[in-house]
Amino acid sequence: MATLSSLGVGTGGIDTASMLTQMKAAEQTRLTPYTNLKSSYENKISAWGKISSALATLQGSVKKLSGEAFNTLKVSDNKAFSATATAEADADAHDVTVMKLAVSHKLRTSGYEDASKNLGETTGTTRTITITQKNGKELKVELADDETSLNQMAKAINKQEGDVRASVQRTDSGYQLVLSSRTSGTEGEMSVSVQGDDTLGALLNTQEGGRQVNADNDDAVIPGEAGANDGMISVSRAQDAELKVDGIKYTRSSNNITDIIEGVTLNLKAVSEEGKSEQLTLSVDNSAIKSTLQDFVKQYNALLTQTSASSKYVPNDASGLSDDEVAKPNKENGALMGDGTLRGMVGEIRAAVNSAYGDGNADYSSLTSLGITFDSSTGQMTLDEKKLDEAIADSPDQIGKMFKDHAGNQGLASTLNDIITRYTGDKESKTDGLIKSTTDTLDEQVKRVKEQIDKTQKLIDAQVERYRVQFQNLDTTMSQMNSLSNQLISLLSTV
Protein backbone atom coordinates (compact mmCIF):
# COMPACT_ATOMS: atom_id res chain seq x y z
CA MET A 1 0.00 0.00 0.00
CA ALA A 2 1.48 3.37 -1.01
CA THR A 3 2.03 6.00 1.75
CA LEU A 4 0.78 9.56 1.19
CA SER A 5 3.67 11.94 0.64
CA SER A 6 1.69 15.01 1.67
CA LEU A 7 -1.47 15.96 3.49
CA GLY A 8 -4.67 16.99 1.80
CA VAL A 9 -8.02 15.44 1.02
CA GLY A 10 -6.69 11.94 0.81
CA THR A 11 -8.30 8.71 -0.30
CA GLY A 12 -9.62 8.51 3.24
CA GLY A 13 -11.86 11.48 2.49
CA ILE A 14 -10.63 13.59 5.40
CA ASP A 15 -9.19 17.12 4.79
CA THR A 16 -6.16 16.65 7.06
CA ALA A 17 -4.30 19.68 5.63
CA SER A 18 -7.02 22.10 6.78
CA MET A 19 -7.22 20.36 10.13
CA LEU A 20 -3.46 20.69 10.60
CA THR A 21 -3.54 24.40 9.69
CA GLN A 22 -6.25 25.05 12.26
CA MET A 23 -4.42 23.15 14.96
CA LYS A 24 -1.18 24.97 14.17
CA ALA A 25 -2.96 28.31 14.52
CA ALA A 26 -4.39 27.18 17.84
CA GLU A 27 -0.95 26.15 19.06
CA GLN A 28 0.55 29.53 18.02
CA THR A 29 -1.79 31.29 20.47
CA ARG A 30 0.47 29.92 23.21
CA LEU A 31 2.94 32.67 22.16
CA THR A 32 0.46 35.52 22.57
CA PRO A 33 1.13 36.23 26.29
CA TYR A 34 4.86 36.35 25.61
CA THR A 35 4.67 38.51 22.49
CA ASN A 36 2.32 40.91 24.29
CA LEU A 37 4.73 41.09 27.20
CA LYS A 38 7.67 41.69 24.86
CA SER A 39 5.80 44.50 23.08
CA SER A 40 4.93 46.04 26.44
CA TYR A 41 8.59 46.10 27.51
CA GLU A 42 9.73 47.47 24.16
CA ASN A 43 7.08 50.20 24.23
CA LYS A 44 8.26 51.22 27.69
CA ILE A 45 11.86 51.41 26.49
CA SER A 46 10.78 53.54 23.54
CA ALA A 47 8.77 55.85 25.79
CA TRP A 48 11.71 56.34 28.14
CA GLY A 49 13.91 57.11 25.14
CA LYS A 50 11.57 59.91 24.03
CA ILE A 51 11.38 61.28 27.57
CA SER A 52 15.19 61.21 27.89
CA SER A 53 15.49 63.18 24.67
CA ALA A 54 12.98 65.78 25.90
CA LEU A 55 14.82 66.04 29.23
CA ALA A 56 18.16 66.59 27.49
CA THR A 57 16.69 69.39 25.37
CA LEU A 58 15.15 71.02 28.43
CA GLN A 59 18.44 70.70 30.28
CA GLY A 60 20.22 72.63 27.53
CA SER A 61 17.81 75.53 28.05
CA VAL A 62 18.15 75.26 31.83
CA LYS A 63 21.94 75.49 31.67
CA LYS A 64 21.68 78.75 29.71
CA LEU A 65 19.51 80.13 32.50
CA SER A 66 22.26 79.33 35.01
CA GLY A 67 24.52 81.99 33.50
CA GLU A 68 24.76 82.50 29.76
CA ALA A 69 21.33 84.10 29.36
CA PHE A 70 22.24 86.78 31.92
CA ASN A 71 25.84 87.27 30.79
CA THR A 72 25.26 87.74 27.07
CA LEU A 73 26.68 91.08 26.04
CA LYS A 74 26.07 93.40 23.12
CA VAL A 75 29.33 94.60 21.59
CA SER A 76 29.73 97.99 19.94
CA ASP A 77 30.68 98.38 16.27
CA ASN A 78 34.12 99.89 15.75
CA LYS A 79 36.22 100.78 12.69
CA ALA A 80 39.76 99.81 13.72
CA PHE A 81 38.75 96.57 15.40
CA SER A 82 35.88 94.20 16.08
CA ALA A 83 35.23 92.27 19.27
CA THR A 84 33.40 89.22 20.53
CA ALA A 85 32.49 88.48 24.15
CA THR A 86 31.95 85.24 26.06
CA ALA A 87 30.04 84.64 29.29
CA GLU A 88 33.22 85.46 31.25
CA ALA A 89 33.19 89.07 30.05
CA ASP A 90 31.72 91.90 32.12
CA ALA A 91 29.57 94.78 31.00
CA ASP A 92 32.01 97.68 30.73
CA ALA A 93 33.60 100.26 28.40
CA HIS A 94 37.23 100.41 27.21
CA ASP A 95 39.27 102.88 25.16
CA VAL A 96 41.17 101.08 22.40
CA THR A 97 43.77 102.56 20.03
CA VAL A 98 45.42 100.49 17.28
CA MET A 99 48.93 101.76 16.39
CA LYS A 100 50.18 98.84 14.29
CA LEU A 101 48.73 95.66 12.84
CA ALA A 102 50.54 92.35 13.05
CA VAL A 103 52.00 91.43 9.65
CA SER A 104 53.30 88.06 8.49
CA HIS A 105 56.74 87.94 6.88
CA LYS A 106 56.74 87.36 3.13
CA LEU A 107 59.72 87.02 0.75
CA ARG A 108 60.03 86.62 -3.01
CA THR A 109 62.72 86.01 -5.61
CA SER A 110 63.40 88.15 -8.63
CA GLY A 111 61.41 87.32 -11.77
CA TYR A 112 62.42 84.48 -14.13
CA GLU A 113 61.13 83.69 -17.61
CA ASP A 114 60.74 79.99 -17.00
CA ALA A 115 59.41 78.56 -13.71
CA SER A 116 60.55 75.07 -14.75
CA LYS A 117 64.18 75.98 -15.46
CA ASN A 118 66.73 74.79 -12.90
CA LEU A 119 68.54 77.70 -11.24
CA GLY A 120 71.21 75.83 -9.29
CA GLU A 121 74.56 74.29 -10.17
CA THR A 122 75.11 70.79 -11.51
CA THR A 123 77.06 69.35 -8.60
CA GLY A 124 76.16 65.69 -8.78
CA THR A 125 75.04 65.87 -5.15
CA THR A 126 72.15 67.33 -3.23
CA ARG A 127 71.87 70.79 -1.78
CA THR A 128 69.84 71.77 1.29
CA ILE A 129 67.57 74.77 1.71
CA THR A 130 66.96 75.70 5.37
CA ILE A 131 64.23 78.16 6.34
CA THR A 132 64.45 79.26 9.98
CA GLN A 133 61.89 81.38 11.81
CA LYS A 134 62.60 83.65 14.73
CA ASN A 135 60.52 81.44 17.02
CA GLY A 136 63.00 78.61 16.40
CA LYS A 137 60.96 76.56 13.95
CA GLU A 138 63.05 75.16 11.11
CA LEU A 139 62.15 73.69 7.73
CA LYS A 140 64.71 71.81 5.61
CA VAL A 141 64.44 70.45 2.07
CA GLU A 142 67.02 68.53 0.06
CA LEU A 143 67.07 69.01 -3.70
CA ALA A 144 68.80 67.12 -6.50
CA ASP A 145 70.39 68.86 -9.50
CA ASP A 146 67.15 68.67 -11.47
CA GLU A 147 64.99 69.98 -8.61
CA THR A 148 66.13 73.62 -8.37
CA SER A 149 63.45 75.25 -10.53
CA LEU A 150 60.91 77.58 -8.93
CA ASN A 151 58.17 74.96 -9.33
CA GLN A 152 60.24 72.13 -7.85
CA MET A 153 61.41 74.21 -4.89
CA ALA A 154 57.84 75.30 -4.08
CA LYS A 155 56.65 71.70 -4.31
CA ALA A 156 59.44 70.43 -2.02
CA ILE A 157 58.82 73.14 0.60
CA ASN A 158 55.04 72.58 0.72
CA LYS A 159 55.55 68.83 0.96
CA GLN A 160 57.07 69.37 4.42
CA GLU A 161 53.74 70.80 5.65
CA GLY A 162 55.65 73.16 7.90
CA ASP A 163 55.07 76.71 9.07
CA VAL A 164 56.12 78.22 5.72
CA ARG A 165 54.00 78.16 2.58
CA ALA A 166 55.57 78.46 -0.90
CA SER A 167 53.96 79.48 -4.19
CA VAL A 168 55.01 80.45 -7.69
CA GLN A 169 53.41 83.61 -8.98
CA ARG A 170 53.45 84.97 -12.51
CA THR A 171 54.06 88.72 -12.72
CA ASP A 172 54.93 91.26 -15.41
CA SER A 173 58.60 90.76 -14.56
CA GLY A 174 58.38 86.94 -14.79
CA TYR A 175 57.80 84.02 -12.43
CA GLN A 176 58.64 84.49 -8.75
CA LEU A 177 59.00 82.06 -5.84
CA VAL A 178 57.11 83.50 -2.85
CA LEU A 179 57.64 82.32 0.75
CA SER A 180 54.96 83.20 3.30
CA SER A 181 55.21 82.63 7.05
CA ARG A 182 52.14 81.08 8.60
CA THR A 183 53.07 82.74 11.92
CA SER A 184 52.23 86.43 12.10
CA GLY A 185 54.38 89.01 13.85
CA THR A 186 58.13 89.08 14.45
CA GLU A 187 58.08 85.50 15.78
CA GLY A 188 57.44 84.36 12.21
CA GLU A 189 60.33 86.29 10.60
CA MET A 190 62.18 84.00 8.17
CA SER A 191 65.82 83.57 7.25
CA VAL A 192 66.89 81.40 4.30
CA SER A 193 70.21 79.64 3.72
CA VAL A 194 71.42 77.21 1.06
CA GLN A 195 74.19 74.65 1.63
CA GLY A 196 75.88 72.80 -1.22
CA ASP A 197 75.00 75.17 -4.09
CA ASP A 198 76.56 78.64 -4.13
CA THR A 199 74.69 79.68 -7.26
CA LEU A 200 71.29 78.90 -5.73
CA GLY A 201 72.47 80.38 -2.46
CA ALA A 202 73.18 83.71 -4.13
CA LEU A 203 69.53 83.83 -5.19
CA LEU A 204 67.93 82.68 -1.93
CA ASN A 205 70.23 83.39 1.04
CA THR A 206 68.40 85.90 3.26
CA GLN A 207 69.37 86.81 6.84
CA GLU A 208 68.08 90.35 7.39
CA GLY A 209 64.46 90.17 6.36
CA GLY A 210 64.94 90.60 2.60
CA ARG A 211 66.03 93.41 0.28
CA GLN A 212 64.00 96.59 0.15
CA VAL A 213 63.72 97.49 -3.53
CA ASN A 214 62.10 100.09 -5.73
CA ALA A 215 58.62 99.01 -6.77
CA ASP A 216 59.57 99.19 -10.48
CA ASN A 217 63.08 97.73 -10.31
CA ASP A 218 64.18 94.69 -8.28
CA ASP A 219 67.83 95.76 -8.69
CA ALA A 220 67.23 99.23 -7.19
CA VAL A 221 67.92 98.65 -3.51
CA ILE A 222 66.54 101.36 -1.23
CA PRO A 223 69.55 102.96 0.51
CA GLY A 224 69.81 102.65 4.26
CA GLU A 225 67.29 99.83 4.53
CA ALA A 226 68.17 96.48 6.13
CA GLY A 227 68.66 93.44 3.94
CA ALA A 228 70.75 95.08 1.21
CA ASN A 229 72.87 91.92 0.96
CA ASP A 230 69.97 89.44 1.02
CA GLY A 231 69.19 87.36 -2.04
CA MET A 232 65.40 87.45 -1.66
CA ILE A 233 63.24 90.55 -1.74
CA SER A 234 60.95 91.65 1.10
CA VAL A 235 57.28 91.69 0.17
CA SER A 236 56.15 92.44 3.72
CA ARG A 237 58.34 92.67 6.79
CA ALA A 238 57.36 90.82 9.98
CA GLN A 239 55.64 93.17 12.39
CA ASP A 240 53.91 92.82 15.74
CA ALA A 241 50.60 94.43 16.55
CA GLU A 242 50.74 97.44 18.87
CA LEU A 243 47.71 98.84 20.67
CA LYS A 244 46.62 100.67 23.75
CA VAL A 245 43.73 99.57 25.94
CA ASP A 246 42.65 102.04 28.58
CA GLY A 247 45.97 103.87 28.19
CA ILE A 248 48.19 100.78 28.62
CA LYS A 249 50.38 99.76 25.67
CA TYR A 250 50.45 96.13 24.49
CA THR A 251 52.48 94.30 21.83
CA ARG A 252 51.13 91.06 20.36
CA SER A 253 52.20 88.82 17.49
CA SER A 254 48.64 88.31 16.24
CA ASN A 255 45.76 90.56 15.28
CA ASN A 256 43.40 88.26 17.21
CA ILE A 257 43.98 89.11 20.86
CA THR A 258 42.32 87.25 23.74
CA ASP A 259 44.48 88.04 26.77
CA ILE A 260 43.94 91.74 27.45
CA ILE A 261 40.23 92.04 28.37
CA GLU A 262 38.88 88.95 30.14
CA GLY A 263 36.30 87.11 28.06
CA VAL A 264 36.81 89.41 25.06
CA THR A 265 38.55 88.71 21.75
CA LEU A 266 39.81 91.75 19.85
CA ASN A 267 40.21 91.39 16.10
CA LEU A 268 42.40 94.27 14.86
CA LYS A 269 41.42 95.44 11.37
CA ALA A 270 43.13 98.79 10.76
CA VAL A 271 45.31 101.44 12.34
CA SER A 272 43.18 103.94 14.28
CA GLU A 273 42.44 107.09 12.31
CA GLU A 274 44.73 109.96 13.38
CA GLY A 275 45.80 107.87 16.35
CA LYS A 276 42.50 108.48 18.09
CA SER A 277 41.01 105.86 20.39
CA GLU A 278 37.63 104.22 19.90
CA GLN A 279 35.36 103.12 22.71
CA LEU A 280 34.57 99.44 23.03
CA THR A 281 31.23 99.16 24.81
CA LEU A 282 30.00 95.90 26.34
CA SER A 283 26.40 96.12 27.53
CA VAL A 284 23.98 93.47 28.82
CA ASP A 285 21.78 92.03 26.09
CA ASN A 286 18.44 91.68 27.85
CA SER A 287 16.90 90.13 24.73
CA ALA A 288 18.88 86.95 25.51
CA ILE A 289 16.97 86.61 28.80
CA LYS A 290 13.63 86.71 27.01
CA SER A 291 14.60 84.33 24.18
CA THR A 292 16.04 81.81 26.64
CA LEU A 293 12.93 81.93 28.84
CA GLN A 294 10.73 81.48 25.77
CA ASP A 295 12.74 78.39 24.83
CA PHE A 296 12.57 77.13 28.43
CA VAL A 297 8.75 77.32 28.40
CA LYS A 298 8.62 75.60 25.02
CA GLN A 299 10.90 72.72 26.07
CA TYR A 300 9.18 72.31 29.45
CA ASN A 301 5.80 71.99 27.73
CA ALA A 302 7.25 69.53 25.23
CA LEU A 303 8.48 67.35 28.10
CA LEU A 304 5.09 67.37 29.85
CA THR A 305 3.36 66.56 26.58
CA GLN A 306 5.59 63.51 26.23
CA THR A 307 5.20 62.38 29.84
CA SER A 308 1.41 62.83 29.66
CA ALA A 309 1.22 60.70 26.50
CA SER A 310 3.37 58.01 28.11
CA SER A 311 1.30 57.88 31.33
CA LYS A 312 -2.16 58.33 29.77
CA TYR A 313 -4.99 56.23 31.21
CA VAL A 314 -8.10 55.38 29.18
CA PRO A 315 -10.91 53.44 31.01
CA ASN A 316 -11.56 49.89 29.84
CA ASP A 317 -14.52 49.42 27.50
CA ALA A 318 -16.81 46.81 29.10
CA SER A 319 -19.77 47.33 26.77
CA GLY A 320 -21.10 44.15 25.18
CA LEU A 321 -19.40 41.86 27.70
CA SER A 322 -21.27 39.21 29.69
CA ASP A 323 -21.14 39.12 33.48
CA ASP A 324 -18.38 36.52 33.56
CA GLU A 325 -16.16 38.31 30.99
CA VAL A 326 -13.38 40.72 32.02
CA ALA A 327 -12.63 43.87 30.03
CA LYS A 328 -9.11 44.05 28.58
CA PRO A 329 -6.89 47.11 29.13
CA ASN A 330 -7.51 49.85 26.57
CA LYS A 331 -4.92 49.90 23.79
CA GLU A 332 -4.78 53.71 23.99
CA ASN A 333 -3.19 53.63 27.44
CA GLY A 334 0.30 55.09 27.67
CA ALA A 335 3.24 52.66 27.75
CA LEU A 336 4.26 53.95 31.21
CA MET A 337 0.80 54.23 32.72
CA GLY A 338 1.11 53.90 36.51
CA ASP A 339 4.94 53.90 36.41
CA GLY A 340 6.22 55.10 39.79
CA THR A 341 9.56 56.39 38.45
CA LEU A 342 7.84 58.59 35.88
CA ARG A 343 5.29 59.84 38.39
CA GLY A 344 8.07 60.76 40.82
CA MET A 345 10.10 62.58 38.17
CA VAL A 346 7.18 64.69 36.96
CA GLY A 347 6.26 65.49 40.57
CA GLU A 348 9.80 66.70 41.35
CA ILE A 349 9.99 68.89 38.25
CA ARG A 350 6.57 70.45 38.77
CA ALA A 351 7.37 71.16 42.42
CA ALA A 352 10.65 72.83 41.42
CA VAL A 353 9.10 75.21 38.88
CA ASN A 354 6.33 76.17 41.30
CA SER A 355 8.71 77.16 44.11
CA ALA A 356 10.19 80.57 44.95
CA TYR A 357 13.88 81.45 44.59
CA GLY A 358 16.23 84.39 45.01
CA ASP A 359 15.85 87.08 47.65
CA GLY A 360 12.80 86.60 49.86
CA ASN A 361 11.60 90.20 49.57
CA ALA A 362 12.26 90.52 45.82
CA ASP A 363 9.52 91.49 43.40
CA TYR A 364 10.59 88.69 41.08
CA SER A 365 11.19 85.37 42.83
CA SER A 366 8.92 82.91 41.03
CA LEU A 367 7.95 82.07 37.47
CA THR A 368 4.45 83.43 38.03
CA SER A 369 5.94 86.85 38.81
CA LEU A 370 7.51 86.81 35.33
CA GLY A 371 4.19 86.21 33.59
CA ILE A 372 4.30 82.41 33.48
CA THR A 373 1.09 80.64 34.54
CA PHE A 374 0.40 76.91 34.93
CA ASP A 375 -2.54 74.78 33.85
CA SER A 376 -3.73 73.08 37.04
CA SER A 377 -4.48 69.75 35.35
CA THR A 378 -1.73 69.36 32.76
CA GLY A 379 0.99 71.50 34.32
CA GLN A 380 1.62 73.20 30.95
CA MET A 381 3.09 76.71 31.06
CA THR A 382 1.68 79.81 29.37
CA LEU A 383 3.92 82.87 28.96
CA ASP A 384 2.64 86.44 29.05
CA GLU A 385 5.34 88.14 26.98
CA LYS A 386 4.22 91.65 27.85
CA LYS A 387 4.55 90.95 31.57
CA LEU A 388 7.93 89.29 30.98
CA ASP A 389 9.19 92.33 29.05
CA GLU A 390 8.17 94.57 31.94
CA ALA A 391 9.99 92.35 34.45
CA ILE A 392 13.18 92.26 32.36
CA ALA A 393 13.13 96.03 31.91
CA ASP A 394 12.46 96.55 35.61
CA SER A 395 15.02 94.24 37.22
CA PRO A 396 17.07 91.74 35.14
CA ASP A 397 19.36 91.27 38.17
CA GLN A 398 16.50 89.94 40.31
CA ILE A 399 15.54 87.53 37.55
CA GLY A 400 19.14 86.36 37.39
CA LYS A 401 19.19 85.71 41.14
CA MET A 402 16.01 83.63 40.76
CA PHE A 403 17.63 81.25 38.31
CA LYS A 404 21.28 81.33 39.41
CA ASP A 405 22.71 80.15 42.72
CA HIS A 406 22.78 83.10 45.10
CA ALA A 407 23.84 83.70 48.70
CA GLY A 408 24.46 80.00 49.29
CA ASN A 409 21.04 78.96 47.98
CA GLN A 410 20.26 77.03 44.83
CA GLY A 411 18.52 78.82 42.02
CA LEU A 412 15.82 77.31 39.83
CA ALA A 413 18.29 76.46 37.08
CA SER A 414 20.62 74.34 39.22
CA THR A 415 17.65 72.77 41.04
CA LEU A 416 16.15 71.61 37.75
CA ASN A 417 19.55 70.58 36.42
CA ASP A 418 20.14 68.34 39.46
CA ILE A 419 16.74 66.69 39.01
CA ILE A 420 17.28 66.08 35.31
CA THR A 421 20.80 64.75 35.89
CA ARG A 422 19.51 62.32 38.51
CA TYR A 423 17.24 60.79 35.88
CA THR A 424 19.36 61.10 32.72
CA GLY A 425 22.85 60.73 34.17
CA ASP A 426 25.99 62.77 33.54
CA LYS A 427 28.36 62.02 30.63
CA GLU A 428 31.20 64.08 32.11
CA SER A 429 31.28 62.12 35.37
CA LYS A 430 30.24 58.95 33.53
CA THR A 431 27.33 58.28 35.90
CA ASP A 432 24.08 56.62 34.88
CA GLY A 433 20.68 58.00 35.82
CA LEU A 434 17.50 56.31 36.98
CA ILE A 435 16.19 56.06 33.42
CA LYS A 436 19.25 54.09 32.32
CA SER A 437 18.81 51.70 35.23
CA THR A 438 15.13 51.28 34.37
CA THR A 439 15.71 50.64 30.67
CA ASP A 440 18.58 48.24 31.42
CA THR A 441 16.14 46.17 33.50
CA LEU A 442 13.57 46.32 30.70
CA ASP A 443 16.22 45.25 28.14
CA GLU A 444 17.01 42.24 30.32
CA GLN A 445 13.33 41.36 30.57
CA VAL A 446 12.97 41.60 26.77
CA LYS A 447 15.93 39.24 26.42
CA ARG A 448 14.34 36.70 28.76
CA VAL A 449 10.95 36.88 27.01
CA LYS A 450 12.66 36.34 23.65
CA GLU A 451 14.31 33.22 25.05
CA GLN A 452 10.93 31.96 26.27
CA ILE A 453 9.36 32.70 22.89
CA ASP A 454 12.09 30.67 21.17
CA LYS A 455 11.60 27.74 23.55
CA THR A 456 7.83 27.82 23.18
CA GLN A 457 8.09 28.03 19.39
CA LYS A 458 10.23 24.91 19.34
CA LEU A 459 7.62 23.10 21.45
CA ILE A 460 4.86 24.28 19.11
CA ASP A 461 6.80 23.15 16.04
CA ALA A 462 7.39 19.73 17.61
CA GLN A 463 3.70 19.38 18.52
CA VAL A 464 2.57 20.39 15.03
CA GLU A 465 4.97 17.84 13.56
CA ARG A 466 3.42 15.13 15.77
CA TYR A 467 -0.02 16.18 14.52
CA ARG A 468 1.22 15.98 10.93
CA VAL A 469 2.54 12.45 11.41
CA GLN A 470 -0.66 11.37 13.17
CA PHE A 471 -2.84 12.82 10.40
CA GLN A 472 -0.69 11.19 7.77
CA ASN A 473 -1.03 7.84 9.55
CA LEU A 474 -4.79 8.41 9.89
CA ASP A 475 -5.08 9.17 6.20
CA THR A 476 -3.11 6.03 5.34
CA THR A 477 -5.26 3.90 7.66
CA MET A 478 -8.48 5.33 6.20
CA SER A 479 -7.25 4.62 2.69
CA GLN A 480 -6.45 1.05 3.62
CA MET A 481 -9.89 0.61 5.19
CA ASN A 482 -11.60 2.06 2.14
CA SER A 483 -9.63 -0.29 -0.08
CA LEU A 484 -10.58 -3.28 2.06
CA SER A 485 -14.22 -2.21 2.02
CA ASN A 486 -14.20 -2.02 -1.77
CA GLN A 487 -12.66 -5.45 -1.99
CA LEU A 488 -15.36 -6.93 0.27
CA ILE A 489 -18.14 -5.26 -1.72
CA SER A 490 -16.65 -6.64 -4.92
CA LEU A 491 -16.35 -10.13 -3.43
CA LEU A 492 -19.92 -10.16 -2.12
CA SER A 493 -21.30 -9.01 -5.43
CA THR A 494 -19.99 -12.19 -7.11
CA VAL A 495 -21.72 -14.54 -4.67
Automatic annotation (TrEMBL):
GO biological process: bacterial-type flagellum-dependent cell motility; cell adhesion
Keywords for the protein's UniProt record, in alphabetical order: Bacterial flagellum, Cell projection, Cilium, Coiled coil, Flagellum, Secreted
Xref: InterPro entries: Flagellin_hook_IN_motif, FliD, FliD_C, FliD_N
Major localization class: secreted
Ion transport is among the record's keywords: no
Domain Flagellar hook-associated protein 2 N-terminal: 13-105
Residue ranges the record marks as coiled coil: 439-466
Positions of region (Disordered): 315-335
All residue ranges annotated as the Flagellar hook-associated protein 2 C-terminal domain in the record: 238-483
Annotated compartments: Secreted; Bacterial flagellum
Recorded family membership: Belongs to the FliD family.
Quaternary state and interactors: Homopentamer.
Function: Required for the morphogenesis and for the elongation of the flagellar filament by facilitating polymerization of the flagellin monomers at the tip of growing filament. Forms a capping structure, which prevents flagellin subunits (transported through the central channel of the flagellum) from leaking out without polymerization at the distal end.
Name assigned to this protein: Flagellar hook-associated protein 2
